[in-house]
Automatic annotation (TrEMBL):
InterPro entries: Ank_Repeat/CDKN_Inhibitor (IPR050776), Ankyrin_rpt (IPR002110), Ankyrin_rpt-contain_sf (IPR036770). ANK repeats lie at residues 25-57, 59-91, 92-124, 125-157. This is Ankyrin repeat domain 42. Residues 1-27 are annotated as: Disordered. Residues 12-21 have a biased composition (Basic and acidic residues). Pfam families: Ank_2. Transmembrane segments: none annotated. SMART domains: ANK. It comes from Mus musculus. Keywords: ANK repeat, Repeat.
Length: 163
């Protein structure tokens, strides 16, 4: 009709019914909830007795490692505030900070630093999170760590400058 604004496409009854009938996914493990970034379910799973530092069988990651890997910042904060161990390492010697550096998860890396992550921790090959960020080309992660005051003397020995 002339003079009447077109309200745009309307949803059919079926589309409305479909969207209201969607079921919320329930995760079976603390690791799944963290990978999905679902803090509510993470909280519920921990309330039911899950260990904050539980290591998954396949990757040997804790929930904090998975939060750093997937960039689940809200889950990472929740885990840290709830007492998750930021010093726990994988079988390769990686802390959550190592994983955040490898993945270029800058916000997670910054949160770990603010919460006291030790950036001088070396993995099983002697690499720190700074080494891994550089190796993987994550320049902003490097800047975050350097601005945090990470000790660079232990990272580069003077003899390495004279190759």
């Amino acid at each position: 009709m002339p003079g009447v604004a077109n309200p745009g496409p309307s949803k059919s009854r079926r589309e409305t019914a479909d969207s209201s009938s969607r079921k919320k996914v329930h995760f079976s493990s603390i690791h799944d909830a963290v990978r999905a970034g679902d803090v509510k379910q993470l909280s519920d799973i921990v309330e039911r007795g899950a260990n904050l530092n539980e290591v998954d069988a396949l990757h040997q990651f804790t929930p904090l490692h998975w939060a750093a890997h997937s960039g689940s910042l809200e889950c990472l904060h929740w885990l840290l505030w709830s007492g998750a161990d930021a010093t726990q390492t994988t079988t390769r010697g990686w802390t959550a900070a190592h994983i955040a550096a490898i993945r270029g998860q800058d916000a997670c890396l910054q949160a770990l630093i603010i919460n006291g992550a030790n950036l001088a921790t070396q993995d099983d090959r002697g690499c720190t999170p700074l080494h891994l960020a550089a190796t993987h080309g994550h320049s902003f992660s490097l800047q975050i760590m350097l601005r945090s005051g990470v000790e660079t003397e232990s990272i580069l020995k003077p003899s390495e400058f004279y190759l």
